[in-house]
Amino acid sequence: MTGYGRAALTLGGRDLVVEVNGVNRRGLELFVSGPQEWAGPLERHVTAWAREFVARGKCSVFIRLAGASATRSLAWDPAAVAASLEKLAAQAAVSGVPFAPDSALLLRLAELNPAQGDSLPSLDDDSARATLAEGVRAALRAFAAMRAEEGAFLAKDLLARLDVLEKQVAETAALSAGTAAEQRDALLARLAAAGLELDPSDERVLKEVALFADRCDVTEEITRLRSHIAQFRAAITAGASDGVGRKLDFICQEMNRELNTIGSKANRVEVTRLIIEAKNELERVREQVQNVE
How far apart are CA 228 and CA 240, in angstroms? Predict the structure, then answer.
């Protein structure tokens, strides 16, 4: 499900903003972006915090300096920048590589060498890490709340579609109930038209009808479909739980399997029509399920 969350915090005298947004994905994909000083450990920590709130979808977490803090981040240590430039020039000379520093290189060196006292505290510091974690979790909570609101609307839609599926299954069961008897009557009518009068209790007639009834019987498939629908509804009404989206996806696959079997056994145009409609409705359900975490 989609969502957005935002939170602000102050760390080491610097103002930061945390923004979280997410879109639908079948699995979990996390992207983390933040200040250069935290490159490396930031992704590891934020990923762990994000997994407390997100199990499915593409989730992006952006942490940036805000307001005056963002302007202060342009301050750098001239001596450190010059020393880095000299080292690069020396290495280029040793390697026989032409060296022509430009503004982009200087800006990069400035970012890597902030002015003393102007850099963010290290995430190895427990207090700094705890403060950042609080801000990130606040944004994630807002993000999760928005997703939960969307999920409530999604649940209503899925339950309504289940009602449609359930009705179609009931109609299919009712139409399939008298198929064997109709086949017997049709068989006797064909025999009579051919001048071969046989008693309905004749063993040959009974055997043919029994074989047909076995081939077209969909009792087991109907029973399993009803069970799957009940499980699907229970999973939705039970509320949020880990992996419910994957569970619903699996149930959709099983329902589709049963509908395919019923369709292959159908001997009535009305049943075939109902199965096509049910499969179309199930496909709509399946598409919505991809949005469920």
Answer: 19
